[in-house]
Design goal:
The protein is mostly beta strands and 252 residues long. It has 2 helices and 12 strands. A hairpin with a 3-residue loop joins strand 6 and strand 7. The protein is globular and about 65 Å long.
Length: 252
């Protein structure tokens, strides 16, 4: 009898419980990462257009990255207070880009950008482009892409333009870009982009660069600079615009 009781106790002790099996199943279940990510930023901007000024900027982006599809939408504002001699800066940008990976080296892309500016030569500009791109570098911490293709641009000048007030233009353009990023370590990342939209009426060159310093889990200090050059501008406007910002960025 004592032997039977002893064997029963040993079997109960050694037998796995249902709770343990459930925990093992939960531990073995794969972690599914969300294809969605994004960030929001707020900070100060230093701008140089016709005049030099400093004030605030804000922006946000949403990214969807799953399998062969990559999509990104961005919104940014630039505002600087004017004075008696200049109007300052008051503009915003909305952009959307999509990539479809054909293979590890090639992709098809489409991008569009709408820009509204109260004081620059062009009050409104809408640019749409599509084409083929290639991945030149695709490593764990470094990426470099290049692409080119045809596009379309609509633009409208300011009503107070001294040369062509309110003039609207539609033209076919050629688009080309080079973009890349590199993660220096666990906290520092840098990157940039060069984009050219060539047209007979106007050619726009856009150069961007950024340095990101992660301060804590989801908060980073972001330094970025954007240079814009339009080949055709009003007589009283500068061909070049420079926007430098320092912001706090929250990743989600």
């Amino acid at each position: 009898m004592r032997a039977l009781v002893l064997l029963t106790a040993i079997s109960l002790i050694s037998a796995p419980t249902w709770g343990d099996e459930e925990n093992e199943e939960l531990d073995e279940s794969p972690v599914v990462e969300s294809p969605w990510s994004g960030n929001a930023k707020l900070g100060f901007i230093f701008s140089k257009t016709n005049e030099t000024s400093m004030s605030t900027n804000s922006g946000a982006s949403i990214i969807y990255d799953k399998d062969e599809w990559q999509q990104k939408g961005e919104f940014s504002t630039y505002y600087t207070k004017g004075n008696e001699d200049s109007d300052g800066t008051n503009k915003y940008n909305i952009s959307y880009g999509m990539k479809h990976l054909v293979n590890d080296a090639w992709f098809v892309y489409t991008n569009s950008k709408y820009e509204h500016d109260l004081f620059a030569t062009y009050r409104e500009q809408l640019t749409v482009a599509t084409g083929f791109g290639a991945t030149l570098i695709d490593e764990e911490d470094t990426t470099l892409n290049i692409g080119a293709g045809p596009g379309y641009r609509f633009s409208q000048r300011q009503d107070f333009d001294p040369d062509l007030p309110g003039k609207k233009e539609d033209e076919v353009i050629a688009n080309a870009f080079l973009e890349g990023s590199s993660k220096l370590n666990d906290r520092f990342e840098l990157g940039g982009e060069v984009r050219v939209d060539y047209g007979e009426e106007n050619t726009t060159t856009n150069v961007k660069g950024y340095l990101k310093n992660q301060l804590m889990a989801q908060v980073s200090l972001l330094l970025d600079t954007e240079y814009i050059n339009n080949s055709n501008v009003a007589a009283d406007s500068s061909n070049s615009e420079i926007y430098s910002t320092i912001s706090l960025s929250y990743d989600f």
